[in-house]
Amino acid sequence: MTRHIATAILVLMSISLTTSAQENNPLLISGELLEKASNLYDSGQYKKAVDVYREIDRNDTNYVKALYGISSCLFADSQFTASIAYAKMALSVGADPETEPELYDEIGNNLNEQDASKEAIRIYDSAIRKYPCYTLLYLNKGTALIRLADE
To answer: Tell me: the pLDDT tens digits for 81-121?
Structure first.
């Protein structure tokens, strides 16, 4: 009989701790956060969008997309060095083959905006070898070549 009471007490304590933990750590739906941040980005509210992207946890499957989103917001806000840092962070944590060429393109675009067109072209060329069908790399490389010719 005492064994059953002890088991019941342990079960009740476990339920209580689980409920308490859920109240302290509400479930975030990262897809909704991505959409909210994207809408803020589209309306030119880059700093607010960055704050929303930062709500996505490192262990979330959308974390790399959030890092890319932060990088894009920083680029749009002319914070090129910080944008590169976030794009590189996204690459280092394991971007998927769909996102990786976008991140290389982002890095190249940032470099080009910082008048580092030669370095940008090296990034584009490296990414083109790896992702020859990603057409934005060619377009942005062309932009960097034009900028370089104008210098």
So the answer is: 999 999 999 999 987 888 999 999 999 999 999 999 999 99
Report the chain's mean pLDDT, rounded to a whole number.
88
Cβ pair 73, 49 in contact under 8 A: yes
Q: SS3 for 55?
A: coil
Question: Which pair of structure tokens corresponds to residue 57?
Answer: 């946890």
Question: Does domain 30-150 match CATH 1.25.40.10?
Answer: yes
Closest by CA position to 50, among listed 24, 16, 75: 75
Integer Cα distance of 133 and 118 in angstroms: 22
| Residue 41, C-beta contacts closer than 8 angstroms, at least 6 positions apart | 49, 69, 72, 73, 76
Please report, for the chain, the start and end positions of each structural domain, with discontinuous segments joined by +. 30-150
70: nearest Cα among 25, 98, 110, 130: 110
Q: What is the pLDDT of residue 96?
A: 84
The pLDDT of residue 6 is: 54
Q: Is the dihedral of CA 96, 100, 101, 106 positive or negative?
A: positive
